[in-house]
Amino acid sequence: MSTVTNTEKHPHGNAGKLKGKTPGKTGERFVYQDDEIIEKPFNWAQLTRLFAYMKPYTKQLLPLVILMMVLGTLTKLTVPYLTSMAIDKAIAPKEGPTSITLLYTITAVVLVLYIIQWLASTYRIKYTNIIGQRVIYDLRSDLFKHIQKLSFNFFDKRPAGSVLVRVTNDVNSLQELFTSGVVNLMIDCVQLVGIVVILLMINWKLGLAVVLTVPVMFVISTKLRVRIRRAWQDVRMKNSRINSHLNESIQGIRVTQAYTQEQENIQFFDTMNMESKKSWDRASMLNQGFGPLIEITGGFGTLILFWFGAYLIQQGELTVGLLVAFSSYVGSFWEPINRLGQMYNQLLVAMASSERIFEFIDEKPSIDDKPDALPLPKIKGDIKLKDVVFEYEKGRQALKGINLDADAGQTIALVGHTGSGKSTIINLLSRFYDISSGKITIDGYDIRDVQLDTLRSQIGIVLQDTFIFSGTIRDNIRFGRLDATDEEIEAVARAVNAHEFIEKLPGGYDTEVEERGNMLSMGQRQLLSFARALLADPRILILDEATASIDTETELKIQQALKVLLKGRTSFIVAHRLSTIRHADKIIVLDHGEIKEQGNHAQLMQQRGTYFGLIEAQFRFI
Ligand SMILES: Nc1ncnc2c1ncn2[C@@H]1O[C@H](COP(=O)(O)OP(=O)(O)OP(=O)(O)O)[C@@H](O)[C@H]1O
């Protein structure tokens, strides 16, 4: 495609999965059913697919992470045992004198172990962050690349906000899982097994008593955490609704102000904002209430430990040092258990997010190359439409059997009442949609049989409301052909009468225009889009003429520019200006998806039919 397609002409705002659009019912707007699902049951296939994103990094970074993890865990688990040695052998030995030298030696070893532990954990965090960020980068980039390829009918069905939320929120919600979750899961498992083994080795009776409380504690902690996690998820969801609304309200701020709907909008936002606040309050209440409760679940284990431990010391089966070591191990026992419960919740949330992400990634573009599609060679520009029927939705024909021939170099003007099918024809020529039946050929090639990019790169499109991207004027023209030189850009700008106004801008060609080019007038934006199309130099040009009335001087400039642009190309123009229509080689008059009349201006005026009526009406209107 030589120029960008206009999203505004195909608003995404049609209901799709929107539940309703009644103003005031905050809960109803900006709610997309599938975005609402917070958690999904465990799904191994999906989890495997998600973790496959880590694969490219398993060879270099993951071994390092595992090494750091093992090192960190080993050192961590050794310290309590050394402490017990310090107590039992150096501070209060059963037999013989206390040994300060042994105490110093143990302290020195513990110091070294702490240093190793610190280094191991620093590097482990560093490497896991690298892996996590890369995975998220890959995932987001895959998703974006894929969305770029999806066809118009995909966007017809979905509100832009919903697409936005998936690329941002859903991907972000996986961030935690990849940056810390996976590695923590491994560490916790290793640590738990290590601790259980050590506890049983020190004293199997006491070990067993403590270990038996684990499943109970695990269930309690997980169950409590589910509620907290859900409450926080609700906060996120409410925030993402605010994001969606913000997106729409900022894009539509001009309409809002024009219709003086600011108050209504503020009220609506307020309700949303309040809901987000309430949901936050709820979550933080739960956090305050349950958080400490979870923390003290570990206290039960400690109670059992001291009660039973004291008994074993009395029986001579345990030393004080070992009890201290035991208590230290038990202390670092609850940490991984709590985290595992958290991790489980995190996985359920990740399931829902990844399902939504993969749903988009799995969406096949409805318009794609056939497996045996050949490149479309350089074309002359003969276009034929034969019995073309098209339905956007099943059962509603937007075009009802169109037959039309355009010879290379001809200018075809499409005219007709609103909704008669003009834009639909131009959408079909670039294969933004596939026809329901019939055939469209270019130089004898069926457009469904050739490679899409070789087709679209030979068609230039200029739409009514030119889409200006944020960047310089030069960048915006260069969008037509990325390898164009500055001289070429200036040459096309001169050819379409745009040079003059560009020169007058504060930075000339390097003036930064904000997104959508609001600082430029409608006429200037039109001229820019002409320059863009001329630079692309396509054999076929599709033009949706702007309806906006502009001053006579600019109008004249646009007419001259149009002449330059149309020269030597086959052009289809959804024409609104009489001057454009008059100069067309062929005028196609559409009515309810059918061709009513065709011919040149003089012929059609003579017929005194629909065209005559349209022109008369336009004059009366003017
Ligand atoms: N994305 C879409 N999904 C469903 N129906 C659509 C879509 N776009 C257009 N239509 C319908 O197809 C018919 C033809 O629309 P089209 O946009 O081609 O008309 P038009 O002649 O270009 O009108 P206008 O001059 O107002 O732009 C209309 O009935 C319209 O409602």
UniProtKB/TrEMBL annotation:
It comes from the Bacteria. One of its GO terms (cellular component) is plasma membrane. It is a multi-pass membrane protein. Residues 1-25 are annotated as: Disordered. Keywords: ATP-binding, Membrane, Nucleotide-binding, Transmembrane, Transmembrane helix, Transport. One of its GO terms (molecular function) is ATP hydrolysis activity. Residues 383-617 form the ABC transporter domain. The keyword S-adenosyl-L-methionine does not apply. It is found in: Cell membrane. It holds the Pfam family ABC_tran. The keyword Transmembrane applies. The chain crosses the membrane at residues 61-82, 102-120, 182-202, 208-226, 292-313. This is ABC transporter ATP-binding protein/permease.
